Fold this protein.
Amino acid sequence: MSGVTLDLIKSTSQKLRVLKPSISIAGTQPSSPRLSTLTLTLAGKMPPPETQEEIDKLQSALAFLSSDVGRGHGSFYDSRGLPENDYWLAGVWAISSLGWSGGETIARNWSRQSSRYTEDGFNQAWNGYKPNHTSAIGIGSLYKKAKDLGWQQLGVQAPSSPMGLASNNIPEPTRFPLLSLDDLDGLHPNEWLVKNVLPTQGLAAIFGPSGSGKTFVVVDLLMAIACKPAWFGFKVKNVPVVYIGLEGKSGIPRRFKAWRKKNNQLYPSNVKVVFSNFNVLARNQIEELADTIQQVNMTFGVIVIDTLNQASPGSDENSSQDMGIIISHLKMLQELTGSLVLIIHHTGKNTAAGLRGHSSLKAALDTSIEVIGGDNRSWLLEKNKDGADGQSFPFKLEVQTLGIDADGEAITSCTIERNTNVIFQKPEPSGKAQKAAYKLIKQTLVLSPDFNKCNSGTQTACIKVEDAVTKLASTLTTEASNKRSNRARTIIGSLTQGGYLGTGLELDEGWIWLP
């Protein structure tokens, strides 16, 4: 009893009398082989009572901890205070340390979110906790780990020592561990949902103008993520999919039905669709959606918001403040569910400028995919934070007949198919200025009423060179105004010289087209 004074013992006794209903009576044998409440209190390890407030607190912290990690050795941090990458066992044991009657159910439900969960494995882990161990893990370590991953519990403090006594001689882990190069080698590498395209967690976007076919691309991608081994040749990890359809609701069922018809009536049970109105600006709706997804075990998957505009009514997409709130709430949804949040978005009036809205949105994305319409449809890996970007993949739309309506007319929708006819076409230019100009000219040609100029072909759309120069010059806002036309003419000239554009004269008028 060295270091324990009489006053300390009296103080502890008074606290035990207050806590009497929730603890064992002194002098009796505890029902489980756990340390006595007196010993726990003196050691500074008194667990919190099993109140609804404490249960809610634990559940909110667990939302930030993935159970789909390695088993580990029963600790969140190593002896140097560095975070352990594999901590599932530590999570189970930390919950067990509470001694709650419902603790096992909470730990089991959390563990079931992992694809590696087995009943025997969980039972062995739960029964393997040794509370009498000199450095047994407690719930405080779990809360610290959750805080390091971004968890905040407003108005409630994590358990702490009521008497300020140190529980052991292990140094307190630092919030800012300094990692060596060897430590970096031990970290988990980036994991892919769609290899080299979409990460397993984070924020991503698919965008394009109306009529480009982006919704059909989205449906094909999501169904592949749910139940196919690959998508456009990229390996896929199958996970749950939650699709929030806010735009064109009447056509969404037909699009999924068309995909199933094309794919031999495949019916993945891990795809759920939400038609309820959803406001990403409302924090309570973010939390409610995350809670619903957790209740049906659809976490660690993909959550699709179609479209961002419909999900943020009344917001100004060009406002840094409004977009900051949107990004913050999207990240909250991602963290609460451990999922990839994929937004469907539009281009602006200047389609060559890409994703509509404030530049902070693109900066926050891990991946962005642009869908390009017209005669030569394709999707472009426009941004890929952890892989190569700039790759383009052509596709075409195929009409699927789903039935006959009351007027005897066919009910149809579309699916996408890789367009192998353009695989051997000349690749698009790679230079930044050329790439942007080529994209703008392609989009302008789609709307052109002029065909077969300079014998280019009866089905070949053409535009006047001067019209192309004027349109391109209007986008070169970083150039001095008196130099934009010359700069645009130079870029277009380099595209024709590189064979990316065909050109010719007809009645002294210059024309360009796609060869």
In short: Residues 6-181 form one domain. The first strand starts at residue 192 and ends at 194. The radius of gyration is 30 Å.
